[in-house]
Fold each of these.
Amino acid sequence: MTPLCRPSVRVEAQAIRNSFIIKFPISDYSEAKTAVARKAFIDDLRRSNIPFSLPLNYSCVVAGVNIRVGEAYLPKIRNFPSVEHINTNNLFVLKKVSHHQTRALTNNNNALPQINHDHTGVNALVSAYRLTGKGIKIGIVDSGLDYTHPAFGSCFNTTNCRVRYGYDLVGDDFTGMNEPVPDSDPLDRCNGHGTHVAGIVAGNQGQFKGVAPDATLGIYRVTGCVTASDSSDSTTSAVIMKALQMAYNDGMRIINISIANPSGASTDIDAAYSQFLVSKGVVVVSAVGNEGQFSLWMTGSPATGTDVIAVGSYEAPTQYGYGISMTNPTGLRPLMRSAPQDSTMNFSFTNIQVLRGKMASGALTACSAVTTNLKGKIALVAQGDCMFSIKAANVKAAGAVGMIVYSSTDDVLTPLGFDSPVNIPSVRVTKTTGAKLVELITKYASFRISSTEQLMVLTNPAQNTVSYYSSRGPGVNLDFKPNVVAPGSYVYSTMPTNMGTYAVMSGTSMASPYVAGCVALILQYLPGENRNSVMDLISEHAQILFNAGYARSLTPAIQGMGAIAMGSIFDDLRLRTSITSRMGDLETQGVLPGYQSFSVTLKNIGPARYSFTSSYYRSIQLSPYSADKNLIMEPTITDKYLQLVYVNSSGKGTLNPRTANLFQVKILTTEIASNSFTVFGGYLKYEFVTGGKSYDRWLPFMGMKDYLYKVPILPPPTAPGYPTMGPATKWPSLGAKPTYTMVGTDLPYFGFIQIFNSDLVLIYIAATSSTGAVTYQLANLGYYTFYRRSWDPNSDPYYFQWDGFIVDAVTMDPVKVPSGTYAIQARWLRPNRSANATDAFITWTSPKFTIGWSS
């Protein structure tokens, strides 16, 4: 019997077979009460003669267990009085961005400063208030930490040691698919991700200082050390939940999770668990993920937890990177390049000429023999038409000693990927940089450059935009996800000492700990604040990213409240502004004649009187669906002016001492096509003046001129991925057949992809009686909680293979059906719907087929 599952082409969202997370039906999560509930559950299992193992137990934050048990027993277990809910245990990875990572750096005695502190205002805040995060406990759930690194005091769990807490929950050999073997030592000597993250939060060595360099750290290692494959970065929902429980028990005030399960929901078990921690006073900060190329709705869990601070990545004005310096002409700023194609190559040259490598046809892609004499020179070639290794071989044959390839976009600066080795150092530059090099070659007969493998501070051509890889929102309930963005590209931080001590990495994994460090500074200054007040401060002072060349960044669905800005975050704590009723979809709003509305609260808790004015900044609108309602990877951008109207004010006025003003705001939506599921939004900027000083506050808003529950879950019937019986093009199968013998692989099954999440997928078997009456009974293993959207229309499908059994409605045991004619009916729960609503599900019914059991 094969249940709904997904081939492990991408393991980031793969459900682990026969592994589940059980929640007990109790509200008191103390160890004593949880132990009683656990015993009742075990008793139920033993009375039913169900074989099982319990790798992990949960208490204090939630009451439950991680269970290993055969999937065939789930219907019976779901009916136990000792069970409230069953969740799948998902396998997902610390997905690194190859966007840019330096090779090992060994300058451990001369660490470089963290330049992002100038862009974000952290240096200004620290200088004004002398904040270092001292006394704040920050938990880091990641790949562990090399605490022998001098930036962390070269100690662990000793008196006066900043790395005071921690645990290895999994052991070196953990892959996510095997049993964890925990120990008390969270040392990271093989991965580096967690060490890099920890350095951003609280590293402290010489010039290099994290955001909160005096904070106390708790390190909770959740990945293994299996370096032969990507499985070294894998972990599970069950392990992450246990790490969160340990961090809470250790008194962590802030927990950072730079791990994301793509296209998550607030109902994901790790998101819900994180949300519960927030209700207990913990500030949980989580990366949104690195899936920005896969349209909207891709924010990963646990960042999708309602009050979890979800962090995306933006491009800072300057970054560390490898550079190309112009030596003829002189006086020009260096240009950024990628690292060479592999670690054996060095793109180090002094005052060397650069020429374009032309082919006989005049083309400049170097995909055939190059006629230009490149002896002793660097070849500049265009991307496209052939493999990079072919280009390299052709320019090398023409005498070149190095190659620069300029891309067709400005988004990606990954090292070149060669399908076969060619012994010539080769690097990539962006489209804009390539155009500049072409201009210089044309203008100067002997254009020359120099380059080394030393890091430089370089101007970022994509500055003040959301990083191309940063997962896009909004949340699946139209909430602000991400909440805020922070520097995530080319971030310089610590690495294990055996892996180079320092390195540059990119990803939302780097942005999230930056915000966690900023939260530590806020809590040091305002120790009584909770998550909501901390988030209000961050959002009110965030800077909206404007860059005309990168229109897609200008929307709350992608940048949330904007970029973290700490310099003036304590400028006037008497002012608080907030959106007090979110816009949402038409169901949230009610049907209004051509507009949607929200409310704004301006609150003054001090003795001063403020005058204020407001400004409206519209954002672009995004539609993630084609005309036939299929998901498209790059949403359609429109830039229509949506008129904003104040209902009960003019948008300006006076805010008296110790009062609050409430305003209703309407957005006219007649310019947006109905049934397009377009996400729109914008920003209100309030300027307050008192005593000759002014203070700015920003408020984003976002909505949809449609009913969210009607959003397409399946592709259109004519598109790839629509449910199909036995599609042979997607996996080895016998194809759709009128009759199945139920022997070996000759079983009926169907496949599909989802273009939106569904919290519940049910598979029923339809049988037609001799009188024509149709009955529906749940298929064996036909009940699935939370199936996330597929990555793209070309994703490998989910599939269901029916074994000829249904679930008895009374005993919950599998029952074999007789030979006969049947159909499969699949039902997907719509968003914002309960399972008992009349319009709860969309359905698909297969063609009828016959099964004939072999005797």
Amino acid sequence: MAVLSSEDGPKVVRAPPVGPDEAKAVLTACAATYSKTGAASPPEAAVKAVQKCTLPLYAKILAWQISLSAETFTELTEPETTPELVICEDLEGQLIQILITTEAALGAERVKTCLALLTASRRGLDDTEILDILAHDDLFRSEETYLPWAPASLVWPQLAALLSPWLRWDARGAARWRDAALAGAAADRYLADCDTAVRRTLIDYYEGKWYSENDPKMAGRLVSQENKFSEEYYNTRKLDELPFQHYHIYKDDPTTFANQPYFTQLDWVHDKLAATDCCHFLEDIALVHLDPLPEHIEILKDVFETHSYALDYDHRQFYGLLRMTMEKRQRNGHQIKSKIVQDWMKEIQEPPVPTLYPENVDFWKIMECKEKRDFSMHDGFDTKTYDLIVRFDSRGKFVATVSTEREEICVWDVVKCQLVRKMVGVTHPINLVPIDEYKCVVLCRRELRVYNLDQGTFLVALKGVMNQKMPYYGLHDPTHLVALSRNRMYVNLMNIETGDCVTTFKAGEDRFLNSLLVSGDGRVLVCGDETQKPFPLLVWSLTSRKLLYDLRIPHHDFITSKAAITYEGSYVCVVSRELDEPSPNFIVVYDLQSGTLFKKWKPGCDTVALAISSIDGCVVSGLADTRILVWDLVTGNCRLTLRGHVAAPSMLRLAKSGGVLMSTDDTCKDLSVRLWDLHTGKLIAVYTPPERITSCEVLLGGSVLALALENYKEVLCVKLYGPTVESVQNGKEAEFDDREYGDQNLEGRTFDCRDSRIVETHSALRLVGSFSSANHSAERALVSFSFNVKQTRAKGT
């Protein structure tokens, strides 16, 4: 350790050779382990042999030979015959003795056939594979048994048991050589004269040739060997073995090997990636020994090396990242030379699987590490460009963004990927609620202000200030909103046009509200009361301005930060937890038409996000164990379970027209965004951006995603390509929007709102001045009054 930690840096230190005493200990221990009749002292000849060759593997081989007894081969040898212990002076000779001993026990031809297949395979063979292959070999068939291939099922278990110290089985059950030295000895012994024939046998098996021929003489199982068994399960063994076997067939003709379907057909590449990962495919590319590499191999290598994180996360991004790589080559001046790549260019424009692809013109700059910092807002630090993205329900293709630090509000066209309006100088905007497609209510510090986004003008400031920690508000109708008061003891109904308070909803004396939820149509208001125990939910009708229900569960609290209400206010769902038990929280659903508990769902782990859809009649919950559950609002049953995230999906967004869900993790432990079909429960597409997501929204039925990323100046518009998804297509048609935003003469304009803020400040100062003058007058009157009272009292005395 002193050498490794020296000032000169770490060095390679050769381990000292194993001593005679250690070799003897290995021999004794392994002999006891391998013996079936109990531990016995090794023969003197074996002890002397390990004194000369102290390699541990050499000692293990001798121990295995010593442990063999006649009981292992009762059918093949005499009952009292013990295999002779043959001792060689070197390791290579002793390795050969393992194979010779096995051949003597089970027959040389059968052992050669089995071990040649095992040695020629890339990552071993499992029991079903080797039995399928042996069943079609005359050497392992018999007409005397009930099943003609019965001898194969008898020989292979015997062989596996005999060689168990020298074989290892991986997680999927495939047997392969435990030691590379023994694998090399087996290859020299069994593949020297039949390497091509054995590999052809493996190729025929994995390509399903026997299944296609359907020869009556083939008495074993016939497997069709498609690339995919189902939508989620791939033929991993075939996709992994075939390139390796063809490499050995075409070892002398690397050009032919480089043009095999494994490298030229994108559907095969996609399936291989889905079944394995980038490292497995790069292993296949490493088998192409050409300099320079062919154009299509070079492109694939670039894709898998540059985008390995996104591709290993989810294979569905392959076509999008391939398109990005090929467009990058075109920008760098590389001309397409081969017909293979020309065919790829056509295929990636309309990929065979749904693919999300960013449409912003300059987005490629942030994808390249060399230009990443030059394109960011500041050097050296990650910047949060946009804090919030809000969609306009009345306009399907427009979103508004809020940037608190830069004090600006923008409107974007996500179809054209361009900025439509920009307002700067907005005082510390935190939240935005659209009134219609042009007007909105913005929370500026602790004040609510109304702006016209089309004209870029400030309209009115609502009276009063919001609570600093809980500035909650929601829209009642186009001219009114409800807002939680500063002291959180009541809710104000405010007139948006005049800024005045119309009426007040009071929860009661010394009751403090901690949430505010308004239905989509603005008729129902739900608030949580943190004062009383158990924690109640207060439900008001904003139409009649009356308290409808006081909902509560004994010994439970509502976590009102995780709540949702249907558009028409029929149901409200909220996360609840037991006060005295450390059990996971659960979901409760109330029917607001009757005020009764409708359903209680306990998924078994904490719920981190909730969304509710009136159109689809379901509640969507994101769980801490990365699952997403879709609950039926009619039957109360769990309709779907969506899996794929690697962190808790704490941000859920439903398409306005229903049928599509977008999910991501707002803590960015999972960097990707996923698009789901709520009708079928299938994953539509995945996109992994190069930077962390700060906000996101789904538009036009899921055909476009709007993402706000760190270190990127624009809203990233990600569009869905590929085969038509029915739920997305229906939503796109329902939300179709081809109109321009407001006054076309103002498109792309930037408005400075600082002037209106200065006017407000001067008005406030004048108001304060008038209040100060009034206060001074009142103080002088009070002093004069007090002085007169004292004089009167003095005269009276």
